[in-house]
Protein 1
Amino acid sequence: MATTNNVDIKQLLEAGAHFGHKTERWHPKMAPYIHSKRNGSHIIDLTKTVEGLNIALSFLEDTAGASKQILFVGTKRQAGDIVKKLAEDTNMPYVTNRWLGGMLTNWSTIGGRVKHLQDLENRMSSGELANKYSKLEVQRYQEEIDQLNVLYGGVKQLNARPGAVVIFDITHDATAVAEARKLSIPIVALVDTNADPSLVTYPIPSNDDAIKTIQLMADYMKQAVDSGKAKIKAPKIEKETK
């Protein structure tokens, strides 16, 4: 695995990555990742976070370097905008509004809706709908396009089974976890003290609620994906300079 990522434990501390949930909400399988208790809440061992994050980032770098898509998932309110920007910046698919059942396991149906959306968008941009229908009818088509984009906009470019699924809260997006596991797609995920880390291929023990933590994790992931993509282009540059 690639090892170009350098995780700074001080940044994790400043972002509040160590703050877990109330002790009564903990999942027993998180015990190896818990450092202590403070004011009735668990504190995550950040040395374990660094370890898990470095492994996860190396995997994401390798995945991007193999020209495989990474599906980013964050439908929780505080994660949505951050995850969408991460996906757009890395040109990867994403789900940030609502995970529709079958997004992975029933792609034939989901893909049909995506194709319908793309067809409508093409007809709208080409002027076909404006030439054929009244302004009111065109407006209704635009409303349909907008509604479909809320549901499927992030996966319009998903061209095959992704090489990895990254989930920012596995309890909130449990269906995404279940579908990825069913298809044996590797899962990278933030795992807070109330979650089961055994459900995830590459668990990152971390606060999954704080915006600062989510943003920091997204920044690290962007670096890893960008680094992997750069390795795809590197051989071409070498040939051109010879």
Protein 2
Amino acid sequence: MRMEKERQLVVEYGKKLITSGLTSGTGGNISIYNDEEKLIAISPSGIDYFDTTPEDIVLLDLEGEIVEGENKPSSEVALHRIFYNRRDDIKAVVHAHSMYSTVLATLGWELPASNYYIGLVGGKNVRSGEYKSYGTEELAEETFKAMENRYAAFMGNHGLIAGSGTIQNAFNIADETERMAEIYYKAKLLGEPKILPDDEVDLMLEKFKTYGQVKVK
């Protein structure tokens, strides 16, 4: 099977979207880009994550044309393609409808450096993009802008996106961003969260270049 490893990983991490609470139903989507093949393995549209098999995963070229697969690819093809076409440091993308990230995205709020794990996202905050209709080039462009020089962003009134060089790290960034969003939300209920100073965030950004990375087996 072509790109068997990537297909299996998309299936595996699709299930983790559900078991980790990052999404529900068939919401969200996952993709992995293979540099040698110049192809994207992406989750199919509308299939339960626990019913999805490697054969169900769709292979696309960088223009979004189906190369292999019988299923309709995720409706957010443009959202994934834009990162593989424009950023060399991103080879996997996780899009989730996680609760607390979506709450902040619905408010149009950024996530500031209220937790030292902000170093994992590659910047001093997680930005929130403006709302655009799902599945559109406009949404892809807005999200790409929100995630400039970052590895995570909120999608206005929609959800969360994270990317990295591996699916393991992209998923870890999504999971930790959601955890930080939950902490920030709950802290706001009680008072005003303390924000880390810039010099400490700079230190965390340096430390997390290695500390926050998931080792690929």
Protein 3
Amino acid sequence: MKIFNTLTRQKEEFIPIEEGKVRMYVCGPTVYNLIHIGNARPMIVFDTFRRYMEYKGYKVNYVSNFTDVDDKIIKKAIEEGVDAEEISGRYIAECKKDMEGMNIMPATVHPLATQEIDGMIAMIQTLVEKGYAYAAKDGTVYYRTGKFASYGKLSHKNLDDLQAGHRDIQVTGELKEDPFDFVLWKPKKEGEPAWDSPWGQGRPGWHIECSVMSKKYLGETIDIHAGGEDLIFPHHENEIAQSEAASGKEFSRYWMHNGFLNINNQKMSKSLGNFFTVREIAEKYDLQVLRFFMLSAHYRSPLNFSADLMEAAKNGLERICTAAEQLERLKSASTKEEMQEQEEALYAQSAQFQDKFEAAMEDDCNTADAVSAVFELVKFINMHVSAECSKEYLQKLYDRLDNLCGILGIHIHKEEQMLDAEIESLIEERQNARKNKDFARADQIREELLQKGILLKDTREGVTWKRA
């Protein structure tokens, strides 16, 4: 298996630290709002890579954090007049709902930054003792960037280049030794959550959080660190500096970064009005369509999101599901049990598509070519099945299609559609629950219908619904 390593800018053969095991860390979202489709891309592509590694027999320890203490969370909490913990707890729960809708496997561990403060303080103390960090008069602790000789090795820029090209992240002032030093610990501000530390009450900087959570759950050196390419600098660069200065060991052997997601060939932005949450997409499409769309391009390529491309993904997914339905229908009607000689030859021939799929995934997780191999298998199925086929042959073809789609995280078996009367009955129960102020039950019903592909819309005239 080959991986494009951002660190070396080339494809490298993947050799795990420990045979048969993979230690993988993927940076998770900052939970101050519903996740957007830009957040969804790394979730989907690295979940797919994890699934493939598990398919190949690796035991994957997959860690993905939630950043639950941050300026944006605090700002939202102040706006709503609640604790920051309430905001983060609410949006972690909402994020997990969206992840379930996109069929993202739960991580081995989903650590929360606020539960790892002691480890952060300990790592900062180590960096101070080694001379890589220093405390300013106001209680801020900074990382001494100039002391880390290989700073910039991930983004492939030296400090001079970085200072010239990223003046926006430099903060000057008397408290810093160098304008490019970054924050490890922030002093407490009024109304913000804070923890006791040797430098006074305060909270950690963003970068130290992932270094500590990765170390705790995966060890000082890990196999793969992944995330969006926007994290290469400064976040991942700073993680390397902190972790390697503290441990004296290589932090991660391979670095994987997915490309940007654009909307109608423009950068996603609330100001441009082209900002979409996963929840908004779920109102128009089954989230399996969003997942399939995300896998239609190579993860390192920029990906353009548009209504036309989502419709194309929906139609493509429908082709796959229709082939699966045909296999199930023919199997239930077949009177022949065991494969015939001609069927055995055809089934053996279909293995070429599995080989193509695996070759694509082995080549830096090329899901675009893997999806193409699935479509070739679908075409083969449509050409080589009929009412005369045996149950065994039809089942084996179904299993082959199901296994490959399963690696992509795609369900090919459609649940039976709910009857209109069942839907109307649940809507009536939801309305009664709302009248009785049982909002938990009302939300549960809405979620239940959403999982079945039924979209509700509350209007002044009442509740309308449609199938996704």
